[in-house]
Design goal:
Layout lengths: L1 E5 L8 E5 L4 E5 L5 E8 L4 E3 L7 H11 L4 E2 L5 E2 L3 E4 L2 E4 L10 E2 L9 E7 L4 E9 L10 E9 L3 E10 L5 E3 L2 E2 L2 E2 L9 E3 L3 E6 L5 E7 L4 E4 L6 E6 L5 E7 L3 E8 L7 E6 L6 E6 L5 H4 L4 E3 L4 E12 L2
Length: 316
């Protein structure tokens, strides 16, 4: 029922999980374990539910600014001025964006991941990728082993992540994912519903102030020309929280396990071309390496597991 296809995007390694009916999940194994496409055959055409890179030329031109689909670890979002503190020590990261002096999206989002295993049966396919951060960087001298496990059925996928502290001392850790979703039309025409949440308030450099306000805008509301670049703290920490994106022809559910120490936040960003919207599960609000409010601490040998996913219903 499922086949794993190697189809490099130029010099970037890419794997495609293909179902017999034509449904596909495309992953850039050579760049951040990035979700690059999710194609669903419909009666009239094929619907691609993920924004991604179509050519190597466009990839190299825009990937640093978009970071579409990638895993974000050992932090997500912004680290203020690329400097952070832990146990009385100060660490200097690389300023990797042009619009601010921050460090963005962690350390594994532009790394090459290794294929560990692929299995399938009549119902699903499971692809496991792995990456080892050696800790050989003064900005984050904490080694860890990471695995990203994609489970694909066709009309749904899930992403389980495992992170093991492979060092000899405790490790501060946080995580997110950066998928951009699309329903095949301008997002202005779509409605958005998020879990009951508080909007994280930020200063002029997009760093959280420590204050929040109740969010009331997105309850099956038409997006129109609303611009969003905000982090939302989920109020009711339950086993699974869902965000819904709807068009006249499809309903997309993006879910995340949101118990304590799991994906308790959602970062949402509307792309300038209005073709897609980033719905990003996160364990924390930005600058967590400095404010430490939702920081997870892993002891040597300890493993953290997190999970999120998406499913789609096509309206006939």
């Amino acid at each position: 029922m499922f086949t794993l296809i190697s189809s490099p995007l130029g010099s970037v390694e890419r794997l495609i999980i293909q179902k017999q009916n034509g449904a596909e999940l495309e992953i850039l194994t050579g760049w951040g374990a990035g979700l690059n496409a999710w194609r669903i055959p419909t009666e009239k055409s094929t619907l691609n539910l993920l924004y991604g890179y179509q050519t190597e030329e466009s990839f190299w031109k825009i990937q640093n600014d978009t970071s579409a689909g990638v895993r974000l670890a050992p932090w997500a979002g912004r680290t203020n001025n690329a400097i952070w503190n832990w146990k009385g020590e100060t660490f200097k990261l690389d300023n990797n964006v042009s619009w601010a002096k921050h460090a963005l999206h962690g350390l594994v989002h532009q790394k090459k991941w290794v294929l560990k295993s692929f299995t399938s049966n009549n119902e699903k396919a499971i692809l496991t990728l792995a990456y080892d951060w050696t800790g050989n960087h003064e900005g984050f001298p904490f080694p860890f082993h990471a695995e990203t496990i994609f489970t694909f059925t066709g009309h749904s996928f899930s992403v389980k992540t495992k992170t093991t502290n492979s060092g000899s001392k405790e490790m501060p850790y946080s995580e997110g994912f950066h998928p951009y979703f699309s329903l095949g039309e301008k997002i202005n025409n779509l409605t958005l519903k998020i879990p009951a949440s508080e909007k994280v308030l930020v200063d002029s450099t997009d760093i959280p102030t420590g204050k929040r306000e109740t969010e009331t805008r997105f309850n099956d509301s038409l997006l129109g020309d609303t611009f969003i670049n905000d982090c939302f703290a989920i109020q009711n920490l339950v086993e699974k929280s869902e965000t819904f994106l709807k068009s006249s022809s499809a309903t997309l559910s993006v879910w995340q396990n949101s118990n304590a120490k799991e994906y308790r936040f959602i970062q949402i960003y509307t792309a300038p071309d209005r073709e897609s919207i980033a719905i990003e599960p996160m364990t924390h609000e930005p600058d967590v390496l400095n404010h430490h409010r939702e920081l997870t601490v892993l002891q040597p040998g300890e493993t953290l597991e997190l999970e999120w996913g998406a499913n789609v219903a096509i309206h006939q």
